[in-house]
Specification:
CATH superfamily: Sodium/glucose cotransporter
CATH class: Mainly Alpha
Radius of gyration: 21 Å
CATH topology: Sodium/glucose cotransporter
Oligomer: single chain
Structural class: mainly alpha
Number of domains: 1
Largest sheet: none
Keywords: Membrane, Transmembrane, Transmembrane helix, Transport
Protein name: Sodium:solute symporter family protein
Membrane topology: Multi-pass membrane protein
GO molecular function: transmembrane transporter activity
Distance between the termini: 77 Å
Family: Belongs to the sodium:solute symporter (SSF) (TC 2.A.21) family.
């Protein structure tokens, strides 16, 4: 058995063991949903960082930098910007919310808004969970010890089991471990890359390098609208806020992670540019050629950590949202049992998606675009206590989401300019329904 394979085996064994140990610490449904709302600064920060640095953030930034150069810095810069905006709002999220984002929407706008959000978000988030399993399967199959299909099933079952066993208690523990592995793995690869002769020929970073023919100001605007805003209003991000023991802990954790994302963005962009100019290979193959076996094993464990940490948080959040449709009081034991049933169902569906779909970024970006067009404006309006037309909130959510999705599909079909304009239009449509009464009776 090779050293990288040993690292991977030990990693999977550790996360399953942590999940089993967490099972015995679940005393109430609140423990399972939000870790009893007792999580301190380090677990909340570690879990938030690991959740953000999912397969899409790491592999996506590296892939983007190979085609756009230093302009790829904007990817995680936008994530950090979203967190900086969220920081002063986190106290309201913690104050008005309990378990989920739809619960917040229900608090602000009533039962209809909560219901439609509870239907839409789990469906959209299925694509995100599936994308993480796809990434994990590609990483495992790259070790050439298991086929892609078997790797997808294995990775999916492992993260499903430890999420099912320990809920948020398990996730906070495994995510903290995963954050350490992610940072250590990326640091190791960067150090080894910087010591090679090719490092001297790296393109210089300056103001002009932040925009080019492959990444324009319009591309940055679309990234802000469809990616950055999901860190201001996001079910997975809010789930970390709900776990924090108090408002101050939640706010500090968000700020810590926002600042950490800035140097991590430089590291990932550097690695992407370096790998693109030296070999043009995928980052996993590039790392295998560059690193000794021990460090390569650490790097593979780090990538798996990034992927699994996003998958578990998203899976639990989606299952919890669906359970709220059937139970007004989520503190009931029956509600906890139903949440676990949904974890099995949604986890299994995500594995099926991973077996038949292999595009990571497209699956993620379609889901995020729909979500941002549907929910960002209403959630910000609720948190800022802006006056809205309550009867039109559901229409605003549906119209904004589907127009944004149409724009993204147009973009994927090759008409990028038109697609981007439609995505921008989605936010205007959403705001129109939200703030302007379209009822003749009310106007009169």
């Amino acid at each position: 058995m090779s050293i990288p394979v040993i690292f991977v085996a030990v990693y999977f064994l550790l996360v399953v063991l942590l999940g089993i140990l967490s099972w015995f610490k679940i005393k109430t449904p609140a423990d399972y949903y939000v870790a009893g709302k007792k999580a301190r600064l380090i677990p909340v920060s570690g879990s938030l960082l690991a959740t953000i640095l999912g397969g899409s953030a790491i592999l996506g930034t590296i892939e983007l930098s190979q085609s756009t150069g230093w302009a790829a810095l904007w990817f995680l810069f936008c994530a950090a910007l979203g967190l900086f905006v969220l920081a002063p709002l986190a106290k309201y999220v913690s104050r008005y919310g309990k378990f989920t984002l739809p619960g917040l929407l229900g608090h602000f706008f009533g039962e209809r808004a909560r219901f439609i959000a509870s239907i839409i978000i789990p469906i959209a988030w299925l694509g995100i969970v599936g994308a993480q399993i796809i990434a994990a399967a590609k990483i495992l199959s790259g070790l050439e010890i298991i086929s892609y299909s078997n790797a997808a099933i294995f990775a999916g079952v492992v993260f499903l089991l430890y999420t099912l066993a320990g809920g948020q208690v398990s996730i906070l523990k495994t995510d903290t471990l995963q954050s350490i592995l992610i940072v250590a793995g990326l640091a190791a690869l960067t150090v080894f890359a910087s010591r090679t002769p090719e490092a001297a020929s790296m393109p210089k970073l300056n103001a002009e390098a932040l925009f080019n023919d492959s990444f324009s100001g319009i591309d940055l605007l679309i990234l802000l609208l469809t990616y950055s805003v999901t860190f201001v209003v996001g079910p997975d991000i809010y789930s970390r806020v709900f776990c924090a023991k108090d408002e101050k802990t939640a706010t500090r954790s968000i700020l810590i992670v926002a600042f950490l994302l800035l140097p991590i963005s430089f590291v990932l962009t550097y690695l992407g540019i370096f790998s693109g100019q030296t070999s043009g290979e995928e980052i996993i193959s590039f790392a295998q050629h560059l690193l000794p076996d021990w460090f390569y094993g650490l790097f593979i464990a780090a990538l798996l950590s990034a992927v699994m940490s996003s998958a578990d948080t998203t899976l639990l959040t989606s299952s919890l949202i669906l359970s709220e449709l059937f139970h007004k009081d989520m503190e009931e034991r029956n509600a906890l049992q139903l949440t676990r049933i949904f974890i099995v169902i949604l986890g299994s569906l995500s594995i099926v998606i991973a077996l038949f779909v292999t595009s990571i970024l497209q699956s993620l970006l379609l889901a995020l675009t729909f979500f941002s067009g549907a929910f960002v404006v209403p959630m910000l309006a609720g948190l800022l206590k802006l006056k809205v037309v309550n009867k039109q909130v559901t229409s605003a959510i549906l119209a904004g989401g589907f127009v944004a999705l149409a724009g993204k599909l147009i973009n994927l079909w090759g008409a990028s300019t038109l697609g981007n304009l439609v995505i921008i239009l989605a936010f205007a449509v959403n705001a129109l329904f939200l703030f302007v009464s379209l009822s003749k009776r009310e106007k009169e």
